[in-house]
Amino acid sequence: MKSFFHVSDIGDLGAALGEAKQVKATPFAWKHLGENKTIMLVFFNSSLRTRLSSQKAALNLGMNPIVLNIGQDSWKLETEMGVVMDGDKSEHLREAIPVMTSYCDLIGIRSFAGLQDRAFDYGETVLRQFVEYGGKPVISLESATVHPCQAFADLITIEEYRKKKRPKVVLTWAPHPRALPQAVPNSFAEWMNAADVDFVITHPHGYELDPAFAGNAPVEYDQMKALEGADFVYAKNWSCPGVTDPARYGQILSKDMGWTVDARHMAVTNNAYFMHCLPVRRNMIVSDEVIDAPTSLVIPEAANRVVSAQVVMKRMLESL
Ligand code: CP
């Protein structure tokens, strides 16, 4: 595996889920693979789960992780080509990337969408430069449009908790005070479309996800109707993806608190499990009673971030 951005990069999902089960049961069985190998984890943005789970996964495989916080531990980096660098950014990615990759065998990148320029974000401009100039396998640790380590962990969690062969999984938009990227819902949709589940998306008008990720998943604008009979409810906020109105890309179109997932919403489901990638704003995205209920999977989901990251790193090490 040379890169991990999309569900297609993992190949057969059944095989990947089987491998995840093995890795979870015997996390240190492949410690020899990472001997004398280094993974660099580069963060342009904050993180709790991704940072820690990636380091833990690397350590389980016997690798040495190096974590770099861009702009705090390093110079501020320029990401756009052809600019006059007369601002506060001292170094360009064009030099920084090959320097960083000369010190490691694998590299993971966290680089959120700026939400200003849809073409720049949806072109995965930063991530693509790491592929082009780095020459080492690249993992998206949440880039402008995708968060595959999260989506894989979400799928592992659904596989562990599903009570029927083909559960109904609902991705619901929920309100948030700040404009957030679409990476999590994009990847969740992409992975659910490839999985053996009945997948439904619900959100207010204007929040339509890019068709490259939403595919043919049904979109139901009536949230309560979408949630009827759901086995898993996956809540997430995202800003306007700019599909129906490119001028509104990255904007907040609604703060309707009626979309906050609470007991009223969960009551119409099939005693559904609640999921969220975290961090979560309590009583904005989800009520205390729903996230604190025994049916909340937010902690097992976060724990499975080690498993998903370890499967990906293991495969990359095996193909070096
Ligand atoms: N879910 C997730 O990626 O969490 P962090 O932003 O804390 O890494």
Structure, described:
With 320 residues, the chain is α/β, with parallel strands linked by helices. 35% of the residues lie in helices and 14% in strands. It has helices spanning 13-25, 49-60, 93-101, 118-122, 125-134, 148-161, 183-194, 211-214, 223-227, 263-266, 288-291, 298-318; strands at 3-4, 38-43, 64-69, 77-78, 91-92, 106-110, 138-140, 168-173, 198-202, 232-236, 273-275. The longest helix is centred in the C-terminal third of the chain and has 21 residues, at 298-318. The model has no long low-confidence stretch (mean pLDDT 97). The structure holds phosphoric acid mono(formamide)ester (CP). Residues 47-50, 142, 150, 277-279 line the site of phosphoric acid mono(formamide)ester.
Give me the secondary-structure topology.
Elements: E1 3-4, H1 13-25, E2 38-43, H2 49-60, E3 64-69, E4 77-78, E5 91-92, H3 93-101, E6 106-110, H4 118-122, H5 125-134, E7 138-140, H6 148-161, E8 168-173, H7 183-194, E9 198-202, H8 211-214, H9 223-227, E10 232-236, H10 263-266, E11 273-275, H11 288-291, H12 298-318
Parallel strand pairs: 1-7, 2-3, 2-6, 4-5, 6-7, 8-9, 8-10, 10-11
Helix pairs in contact: 1-12, 2-12, 3-5, 6-7, 6-12
This protein binds phosphoric acid mono(formamide)ester.
Structurally, how many domains make up the residues? 2
Largest sheet: 5 strands, parallel
The H-level CATH homologous superfamily of the largest domain, spelled out, is Aspartate/ornithine carbamoyltransferase
| Name given to the CATH architecture of the largest domain | 3-Layer(aba) Sandwich
User: Could you estimate the helical fraction of the residues in percent?
Assistant: 25-40%
Report the average pLDDT across residues.
Answer: 97
Number of alpha- plus pi-helical segments: 12
The chain-level structural class is: alpha/beta
- Give the low-pLDDT segments: none
Name the CATH class of the largest domain: Alpha Beta
Hetero ligands: phosphoric acid mono(formamide)ester
Oligomer: single chain
